[in-house]
From TrEMBL:
Residues 172-182 have a biased composition (Low complexity). PROSITE patterns: UBC_1, UBC_2. This is E2 ubiquitin-conjugating enzyme. Residues 5-155 form the UBC core domain. Its EC number is 2.3.2.23. The active site is at C89 (glycyl thioester intermediate). The lineage of its organism: Eukaryota, Rhodophyta, Stylonematophyceae, Stylonematales, Stylonemataceae. Residues 157-213 are annotated as: Disordered. It comes from Rhodosorus marinus. Belongs to the ubiquitin-conjugating enzyme family.
Amino acid sequence: MVSSAFMARLKRELEMLETEPPPGVSVWPKGDAVDLLRAVIRGSMDTPYRDGFFHLEISVSSRYPFEPPRVRFLTPIYHPNIDSSGRICLNILNMPPKGGWKPALNLSTVLGSIQLLLSEPNPDDALMVEISEQFVRKRELFDKIARELTLSHAQNEVLPDSESMPTDQLKWKPGSPSSSKPQTQMEEDEDDDGYHGYSRKKRRVGLSESSSL
């Protein structure tokens, strides 16, 4: 049963996000479900995500604010800390002692932190290890691929009816750096759920504890 305190706090936060949202961020409830939200983060100008519209799904537990919201990307994004299913590796999205969530934090803080993560990826706590290595060692190539994916899949200010991009549309353009790869589509099966055929086995040990599931 949803408590009145939970509803009151969530209502206050949504009102705050409507009147004073973080720059480049929009949030709204999905239909009548106040505990299920949609958000859009606009990519910053000094990043390969510039002018992109990145849609997110936010699920707020009845235990909120004593538990963090669950957040995932609906828009495909090429980023060291975000995997192909939209999960985000961000400290405040997890409970202590592994994570840094505190009841004093709020949805605005979470969205602002995710927006900052787009501007400042954290390769030391990567969810996609090979993308992280590319970010560190081959930054120009990383920027090029991230930019191409932004132009291909992050141009919708409003999501289609499906509210997420069908995986059969996630193919790279001919001539892109990944076009010679046999696996160029984001998969979510048991064996491989990364970009360019990146394997789960190549992820760091313990990452499942530091990502938002």
